[in-house]
Amino acid sequence: MENDKNSQKIVDYIQNFSRKHSLFVLAYGTGCGAIEIPATMTSRYDAERFGIRGAATPRQADVLLITGYLSTKTLKRVIRVYEQMQEPKYVIGFGSCTINGGMYYDSYNTINGLDQYLPVDVYINGCMPRPESVISGFVKLQELIQDGKANNGEKYRENLEHYRTNQKKIIKNWKMPDYNW
Amino acid sequence: MEDLGLKIFGAILTTFMAFAVGMTYGGIVRKLTARVQNRYGPPVYQNFLDLLKLQSKKTNIAHGFMGHMAPVWIIIAAVTVLMFIPILNGNLWFPNLSFHGDLIFLLYMMVFGSLGMALGAGQTGNPNSAIGVTRGLSQMVGYEIPFVLALVALMIQYETTSVQDLTQIQHETGVWNAFANPFAFLAALFASLGMFRYSPFDIVGAPAELASGPVSEFGGKYLGTMMSGGAVFAFIKLTLYVHLFFGGAGNPDNSGIWATLAGIGILLIKTFLLYMIPVFYGWINPRYRTEQAIRYFWGWPTALGILGVLWAVYIY
Amino acid sequence: MVREKETTLYLGPQHPGITGNMMVKLKVQGDTVVSASTHVGYLHRAFEKLIERRNWIQAFTLLCRFCVPEPDPMELTYARAVEDLDNREVPERAKYIRVIVMELARMQSFMLWYAGQAGSAGLYMIPQWSVGDRNYILDLFEDLTGGRIYHMYIWPGGVRRDIPEGWADKTLRTMDYIEKRLDEYNKVLFDNTIFQKRAQGVGIVPKDKAIEWGVVGPVLRGTGIKSDVRIDEPYEVYDKIDFDIPTQEGGDIWARALVRKEEIRQSIRIIRQAITHMPGGAYYNKVSNPMKWTVPAGQAWARTESVRGEIGFHVTSDGGNKPYRVHVKGAAYTHGVTVLEKILPGQNIADVSFILNSLGVCPPEIER
Amino acid sequence: MTDLVKENKLLDAVSQAFKIKGKVIRNRRVEVYADKNMVSSILLFAKKQLGYIHMAHMTCVDWIDQGEFELVYTIYSPIEKITLFVKTRIDRENPEMENIDSIWDQANTYEREMREMFGIEFPGLVGEHDFILEDWDQIPPMRKEFDTHKYSAETFFSRPGREDAKEVRDELSKRSGTIVPDFAKKYSRE
Q1: Which of A103, B5, B174, C328 is the residue whose CA sits 20 to 30 A from C299?
Q2: Is the backbone peptide bond immediately before D123 cis, with ω within 30 degrees of 0?
C-alpha cells in the first residue's frame, strides 16, 4: 500500500477527533483546587458540553488533574494512579503550586515542580484557577490532542528511569511496582 | 429458501439498528438530563464519540482469561437474544429467528449479560467489583419475580409462550395487552425500573459507594464493548416490552418498503416513550440501599404480579 | 454462627464518594462495616510551620487556603485573635461587613453540602442545581473582594475595601432568588420518601456522648443540644441581630439535614438585617506599616462558628513581627477522626460516604 | 468592663483546690498555670465538678530559647460560657507527658499529632505513629530548630530563576517600557 501514510493519517485524525471530544476526568481532588471542579462540571460552566465527564477509577480515566499543591504522601498515590491509567493519558497541572511550588515553596511536605515527577501536558496558572480558565485549559489540551502532540504517556514510559530516580528521591520506602521489565 | 439472503441481511441490519438506537437513546437521555439540570449537555451523538475513544485506547489492561471474555460474553448474549426478539411482527425483512424463540427461553438468555459482567468482575479481584457483583445479582433476584409473574400471567391468559403469537393476538383483537391484563403490565413496568439500572436502582455501579462497581477494573476497549452490549440490551428489553404489552409494530400483511419503515417508526416512538418512564423516575430519586431495593420489588410489584396471574386464570 | 470472611476495603484518597482527599480503611463483613480507621495527611502542607516564617499580614494570605469549602471563618478568627492580642478596635461598619461576608460564606458552603449530601445518595439533580446557583453567591464575593473562592478580605483591623455601590441591593436580589430556589431543592430532596428512608436512623451521634467526642456545629445541634458560638460568645455584631438556632432530636443524618435546611434560612435573615442596619463610616483601622507591624507578646484564643462548627485559633506572639505559633482547630478535627471511627461500625457500606458528607468532614482541617 | 465575678469565682475554686497560680485575662477567659503531673487531675476536676465538659483545643508552643514546650489545654463550659486555659511547661530535650484519653476520647488525635510533630512522648497512647507524615526520617518538623526552607530547597527541585525573578522583570520592563527594580531583594524575608 503505497499510500499507507495517508490512510494512517486518516485513522489518526479520526482517533484524535474522538479522543478530543470525549475526555474522562479522574474523580480525584489532590489539592485545594478541587473545589472548582464541581463548579466546572455543573450547570453554569458545564464542561460536559465539551464531552468532559467524570470517571470513577483510573482504568476508565484519560485526564488526571493535579489540582494545586501536592504533598509527598499524595504524590505516591498520584504516581500509582497515573500508572494505572491507560494510554493515551494526559496530566493537567492546576494553579501555580504545580509550576514552581507556588505559595508553599518553602514547605517541607509539598513538591515544587510537578514535571520532575510526572509528564505534564497543560498548566493552568493562577492561585486556584477559575472555571473559565479550567475550561480554557481543557480546550488547550483538546488542541494538543487534535494535533497529536499530547503523547506524554509514551514519554513517561520511554524515560521511566529519569522519572523514577526523581520520585525515589522523595518517596522513601517504595512498596510499589517498578515496571522494570 | 429463496429469501435466505434477505433474512441474513435483515439480521445484520437488526444488529446495527439495535446498537445505533440503543446508543442514540443514551445520548438523547444525557441531553434531556442536562436540560432538566439547567445546562446544555453533550451533543446527542456523544455516546458514539465516547465509544470510538474507548475503542481507540492504546493500552488495554486485562486481568486474566475471564477479563478478556467478559465483554465478549456480554456482546454474544446481547446479539443472540436480539435474534429471538420480533422486531416487526410478521415482516418479511426482519423475521430473524423470532418464530423459534419463546418467552421462557428469552427469560434465561437475558440473564447471560449480567452473568458475563459478574464473571469478568470476579476475575479482576477488585473488592469494589466483587461487592458490585453481589449487589447486581441480588437486585436481579429482586426484579425477576414481578417480571416472571407478569409473563406467566400473559402465558396463562393466551395459552402460548411464543412472543410472536402474543403480538399476533393483540393485532387481531386490537386490544393491547397493557389493557387486557393491567396488573401484569404494572408488575412488568415496576420490574423494568430495576432492569435499566437508573437512579433508584443503580446500586450495582454506584459511583459514590463502589467506584462504579463491577466495571471499575475495565477500561478502554473492554469498557467500550460493555457499553455497546449494554446499549443493545436496552433496545432488546424495550422491544420485548413493546411486543408484549403495546401490540408490537408494523402490520404483518404487507412488507413493502414504506410499510416496514412506518413499522420501524412506530417501534421507535413506542420504545422511546417506554424508555422515558425509568428515566423520569430516576431523575428525581436518590439511590436505595441493597436490601431496600429488594424489599421494594417484593412488595407492591410482586402483589400486582400475583393479581395479574389470578386475573388471567379466573376472570379472563 | 460461622463468622463471615472479613475483607478490608480502602475507601482510598482516590474515591468519588470521599469528600476531599482522605482515606477511610474499613473492615467489612458482607455489607456491614465492622471497624473503620481514618488515615489523613494527604493534604498536609505544614502551613503552621510556614506561618512562623511570614509576618503578620503575609500569614493571613496563607490562612484562607486552609479549608476550601469555606475560607472566610479562618480569616475572621485569625483577625479577631490578632485584634485580641493587639487590642485593636474594629470600626462598626467593618463588623457589619464581616457578618455579611461570614453569612454569605456559610450559605455557599451549605449549598455545597446540599450537593455532597444528595450526590452521595445518588440524586444527581440537586448537585447540578445547588452548585450552579452557588455561583451567584461567588459572583457577589467577586464584586466585593475580587476573588471567587479565596477572598483575603477580612484582615486584622477591619476589611480590605468598602462595599462597592450597588452591591448591597444586588445581594438582596440574590437572596430573594436563592430563597425561591431553596424551596425547589427541599421539594426534590426532603419530600422524597427514598431520601427519608436512606437518611433516617443512619449515622446516629448519641446525645450523651456528643460533647464528650468534641462534636460541634450542625452535628451537635442535630442531637438536640443547642450550642452555637454566635449565641454563646457573640462576636462582631451578632448580638445586635436576631436570629434563632434550629435544633432537632435524633442525631441521625435526617436530623442534621433538617438543622442545615433551617440554618440556611437564618443566614438569609441575618444578611437582610445586617444590610439594612449597616452604618457608614470607616471600614479599616489602619495598621501603620504592615511589613514592620509587631504585635505585643501574649496568647489569644478566638472562636467562630463556621458551617461545620466551631473553629478555634490559638495565636501566640513573642512581640516580634512574625507570629510565634498559630494552632488551628477546625470542626472536622474531631468529626473526621474520633466521631467517624466511633459511629461507622455497624453501618452499611452504602452509607459510609453518605455519613461522611453529613458530618461535614473537610480533610485539610485535620492535618492542615 | 463587666465585673469579672464568675471568672474570679472560677479562678479561686481551681487555685484553692490545687494550690496553683492563675490569672483572669479578660471576661470569659481564665488561665491557670499548673505543674506537669497535676494537669490531668485539674482537667478531671474542672470537667466533673465545675461543668467544663467541652474540650475545645489542646496545643503545644515550642519556646526554644527557654528550652521548654508549653502545653495549653483549652476547655469551655457551655453553661458559664467561660474558657479555661490550663498551661503547663515540659522539658524540651526529652518531652514526656501523660495522655488524657481517659478524660476526653478526642484528645487522642491531638496527642498523636503532637507526638509526630513535636516528638512529645505520651506513654500508653493508642494509634500508629504515622498520623500525618509518612516515612519521616528527620527530627519532628514543627520544632523550631527544623528549618523548612533549607529542607525544601535540598529535597525538592526548585525551578531556576526564582531567586530574583530576573526574566520576569525583563519581560515586565520590555512590556511597560519602564525599568522594573529588583523588587525581590527589598521585601525578601531573610
Answers
A1: A103
A2: no
Structurally, at CATH architecture level, domain A19-170 sits in 3-Layer(aba) Sandwich (3.40)
Q: Which of B3-7, B161-165, D44-48 has the highest mean pLDDT?
A: D44-48
Residue type, C355: I
For residue C77, the distance in angstroms to the closest alpha carbon of chain A comes to 20
Q: How many CB atoms lie within 10 A of CB C244?
A: 12
Chains in touch with B (≥3 Cβ pairs < 8 A): A, C
The answer to whether chain D touches chain B by having 3 or more C-beta pairs less than 8 angstroms apart is no
Q: What pLDDT is attached to residue A25?
A: 93
CA distance A3 to chain B (A): 22
Q: How, if at all, do strands C32-39 and C154-155 pair?
A: unpaired
CA distance linking residue A42 with residue A131, whole number of Å: 10
| Smallest Cα distance from C16 to chain A, Å | 6
- Delimit the domains of chain A by residue range: 19-170
- Are B279 and B29 within 8 A, CB to CB? yes
Q: What residue numbers bound the domain in which C156 lies?
A: 47-367
Confidence category of residue B58, pLDDT binned at 50, 70, 90 = confident
Mean pLDDT of B214-223: 88
Which domains are delineated in chain D?
5-164 (3.30.460.80)
* ipTM value for the complex: 0.89
Q: Considering its fold, how many domains does chain C have in total?
A: 1
Mutate to test the interface with C, among D116, D132, D144, D186 (most CBs of C within 10 A): D132
Report the range of poorest mean pLDDT among B51-55, B273-277, C302-306, D12-16: D12-16
Q: Residues A98-113: what's their mean pLDDT?
A: 88
Would C12 be classed as within a structural domain? no
3-class SS string, B51-118: HHHHHCCCCCCCCHHHHHHHHHHHHHHHHHHHHCCCCCCCCCCCCCCCCCCCHHHHHHHHHHHHHHHH
**Residue B32: its pLDDT value, please?**
94
